[in-house]
Amino acid sequence: MSSDDQHAGLAAELAARSDDELTELLIERPDLASPTPQGTRVLAQRALSAASLTVAGEDLDVLSVAVLEQVIAFRTDTSKRKPKSLTAASIVKALSGRADADEVRARIDLLRRRAILWGKDSSLFAGDHVDAALPWKARHLTGPLAGRSGEEIAAMIAELPERPRELLETLARGPALGRSRDAAPDADPTAPVAQLISSGLLARVDHQTVELPPMVGAVIRGEPAWHTDTLAPPPLHEPGARPRFPAKAVDAAGGGEALELIRHLTAILNVLGATPAAVLRSGALGVRELRRIAKLTKLETGRVALLVELAGYLRLIDAGFPEPPPPDDTGEQAFAPTQTADTWLHQPRERQWLALADAWLHMPRRAWQVGEPDRDGNAMATLSSELHDSYAPIQRQLILSTLAQADAAVAVTPDAVLASLHWHRPRLIRRFSRHLVAETLREARELGLVAHDALTSVGRAYTVEPEPDADPADADAAVLAAMRAALPEPVDHFLTQADLTLTVPGPMTPELAEQVELVADLESGGAASVYRITPETVRRALDAGRSANELQEMFTRHSRTPVPQSLTYLIEDVARKHGQLRVGVASAFIRCEDPTVLAAVMRSPAAEALALRSLAPTVAVSPSDVRDVIDQLRAAGFAPAGEDSTGALVDLRERGSRVAVSRARRQAQPRRGTPSVAQLRAVVTRIRSTDRAAAATPARNPSSAPVRATGGGESSTALIQLALRANRRLRVGYVDAQGSASRHVVTPKILGAGQLVAVEDGTDTEQRFSLHRITSVELLDD
Questions:
Q1: pTM here?
Q2: Are 359 and 446 in contact (CB under 8 A)?
Q3: Per-residue pLDDT tens for 615-651?
Q4: Which residues pair with 745 in a beta bridge?
Q5: CA–CA dist 243, 410 (Å, integer)
C-alpha cells in the first residue's frame, strides 16, 4: 500500500467516526490537534507521521508493544510471495499461550482508537512509520529471547567469555544502541558482536547497529527480570494478600511522619535564623554547612538535604544579606529564612504539610542525589543546579500512581513497583532504576505519603485524576481533608514528672505549644514528646515577660498529674534571683534594689567591658546597647532582665535573621500543554467543516466554470446577495484573527455592517464572518 493509499484509507476511517470518537482520539493524542488539521486527510497524514507516532507510543504497555511487533513482523515477512491480509485473529494466534485473547483484542482496539492501526478485524492496516511507536528499534518481544526467563538469561550471560560480557555491561550502563561493523550478516562469526547476535543476547537493527534487549539489560543491572514468556502485567502483590496493618494504622503512621517532618524543618529554620549558612560560589549550600546544620539539629544529613531542598523550593529560605546581621556576620550573602518562613511557621499543621507535600511532588529536583558524584566526579551539593531535572515530578507521580493500583494498606516492595512501571511504560525503562524507585519511596515515607510500604489516604488523594475542567481548589480540599483525618487530634494537656520533665501525649494546640516551648526544651520527639525544664528554660520564660505566678498557674491548669514540689521550688528560686538587675535604654542603664548586687557587678570583669559608671548605689549606666549589656552580665554569672521606659519587662528572645526573597518560586512546566475537552470539540467541528467544504460541489456557469469570487470586494458581496435571494449555499474561504485559514459551507442569512451572518452546514448555530477576512466565495449546487 502506497503512502497516499495509507493516508486515504485512514482518512476515510476517521471521517466515518462520530464526533465523540474523534474527540476521544484527540484526547489520547493531543499533538494531532495543534495546529487545527484542515480536514480528516490532513489529520490522517499527521497521525501516520513518525514524530506523532513516537509521542503516541509513550504510554503503550508491553502487550500493546507486542501486538505492534506482530504487525511489523507480518508487514516485513518476505517468505510468502503474496501474503494474506493482516487480521486480528492472526495476531491473537501469534500471541496465544503468552497473552489472553481478550486482552490482545483490547489492545488492538486501543491501537485502532488511537489511529495507529485502522480497518476491520478481517483486514487491519498500519502506516510505514508504525515502528516509531515502539520503545526500541529491534523486535525483542517476538525475538529469540521472548520465551526465556530471567534465570535462563542470567545463565547465558554467565557462560560468556570476558570480552562479550564487557560489551553487554557497557550497553547496560549506557545507551542500549551500539555501532559495529561486525553487526552485518556476513561479518566474521567468531567476532564477539556476531556471537552475541547469534545467541540472541544482542539484536541486529541494521548492518552497523545493534541493540541490547531490555530483558538482558535488566538482568545485568540487577533489576527485576522481565518475564516475556507471559505478557500479563506483573502483580504488585500476591492475589488476596492481607495488609500487615489496618488502613487507619497506615494513615496514622503517615501523619506521625508528617509531624516529625514539620518539627525538623522548624528546627532547621531556627538554626539558619541564628547562624545563617554560607553560600558557595556556585550558589549552593556546601557540605560543611550541611553537616553543621545536621549536628545542631541532631538529624541525618540526607534528611537535612531533603528539608533544605523543600524549603528552598518554597522560598522558606533563600540567599541574601541577613537582617539583623548575625554575631559572626561576614558581610557576604548567606542562606537564612525569609519572611515567608514566618507565615509558614504560624499556619495550621495540615497547611504546613500540604505545602511540603506539594513542593515535593512538583519540585524539579532530587534531594536524594545530594552527595552523589556528578559528571565530573564531584559530590553534588544541596541547592545545586546539578540536581535539576524537569522529569522528576513526573516520575514521582507515576510511582505514586503505581502504588495506588495495589489494594489498600497492602505492602508493595520497590522491586514490584519497578517491574510494574517497566511493564506499563516500557519506553521509560532507562528512566526508572531500582535506586531511583527506592529513594523516591523513602522520601515519600518521610513526607507521610507512604507508610508501612503502602500508600496512605493522603498519597491516594494526590493520585486521583481531576476532571479536565475541575477547579484546582477542589483537589486541595480533598487532600486537606485526608490530612486532617490522618493527623492526631491536638492535645491541650501534658503530664508533669518528678524529674522535671513534661510528657505530651500527642501534638499540642498552638497556644499550649507556645507556652511549653517557652519554658522547656524538647528532649525527644515523636508521637509522645518529652520536654525538660531547667533553670535556663525557666529564666527564658521570665525574660519573655512571664511571672512566677503565671508559670505556676500554667502548669496547674494544663498538667494532668500533680505539679511536683521540686518544680515549684525551681520556679520560685529562679524568679527570686531574676530581675534584681534592671537594664534599660540610656544607651543602657542598670538599676538594682539591692546595692550589694550592683556593687558586685561593678567589681566584675563585665564592668570594664561595658564601661559601667555608677550614678548611685542602685543605678549605673553604660554606652553599650541593651542586648550587649544583658549578654555580658549573664556571661559574668548574673541574671538581669530587660525593661522598657515604664519599668515593664520586655521579651528579649532572639528572633533570628531574615533575608528578603530575591526570586519567585519556579514552577515545573509541563512538557506539552493539555487542551481542554471543549477546545478539542471545537477542533473536531473545524475538521468536519473543512471536510464538508472539500466535498461540496460548486455551481457552474454555462461555460462550465465555477461561480466563484475572490476576496471580500464587490464581486463577493454580489455573489452573497445572489445566494441570499435564491436561498443557495456558499463555500466561504476565511482567515480568522490568528491568521488560520479555513473553508465553510454555509447558508447566508444576513449581510450588512461589513459582516455575513450565516448558518454552517451540520450545525444550528449562526456564525459571523467579517467581509474583509473572506478570501473566496463559491456558489454551490443545491
A1: 0.81
A2: no
A3: 888 888 888 888 788 888 888 888 888 887 667 776 6
A4: 731
A5: 4
